[in-house]
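2.7 Reproducibility. Because tokenized structures are sensitive to small changes in the input, we list the exact sequence used for Putative glutathione S-transferase, including any N-terminal residues retained from the expression construct. No trimming or masking was applied before prediction.
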Amino acid sequence: MAEEKKEFKRSLSHFTDRITADGSSGWPVEAGRYRLVVSRACPWANRALIARRLLGLESAISLAVADPIQDERSWRFTLDPDGRDPVLGIRFLAEAYLAREPGYTGGVSVPAIVDVPSGRLVTNDYPNIPAELATEWAALHRAGAPDLYPRELRDEIDAIAEDIFRDVNNGVYVCGFTRDQAKYERAFTALFDRLDALSERLENRRYLVGDSITVADINLFVTLVRFDAVYHGHFKCNRNKLTEMPVLWAYARDLFQTPGFGDTIDFDHIKRHYYVVHHEINPSGIVPAGPVLTEWTTAHGRESLPGSPFGQGTPPPAPPEAERVPPLG
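Resulting structure tokens (single pass, no recycling of outputs):
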């Protein structure tokens, strides 16, 4: 029997509760109550990490970092002493999912926000967490925090974010996981057509929407920063490397060198996760030695374009010592 050819389809978030400033959702914004669980390998979790850093929410929402290598029980806390998250006291993120919904058998994904007192998962609604942090958590933002989701620009941000999600963020996964040649080629074409359009958009403007960083830039950055290290070869997205697309490469370096972006990136976690966990794509489990990462710190020249990273705000301070990533090597 011929193998069935399936289109890659990203699962919708199963737990989409909101944490709201007024508490009307049943989950009120409250400093110290919630824990953000991430993998530094995961681009969807990286979005939440960047938003949390830029907005200065480190002291309001604690952070748990999972091992980049999953096992059959998914995300695990083997980076922590005794293999347990020191705040939640659990070995696997799945335990918080089960505390929320006993008998749950669906996927266990990051980012996840967990209610510390009860140990229950609140939300794994990865597309919306950054915007929620930017709006509902405003009372706890640091002084000088940027407005990542300006009310007057939301329609434009949402429209471009939808295009980026479909063709770029998710598009690289379709290229990597589909087993159908025609579907791969459609996704490949859509990916690079979108990257070409974004390059043209960014040629004379520093950021995607408006004159400062928004959630749209966060959404694009998390894929660009993984592109040459993973997606170009591992996912067969090989028309060009990022370093061969001058505008996007300069744009990505500009963001990487902006406090709150590059200081969330751990290339070791990224590479080991993709190349070790995806057995069907890389059965040898060999993790490539390249690319050269120090190029991320080279001059980008985009300071001359209109706009500034934080608008009328200020850069975030250095990350807490416990959350610092290894330097580029």
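The two ends are 48 Å apart (CA to CA).
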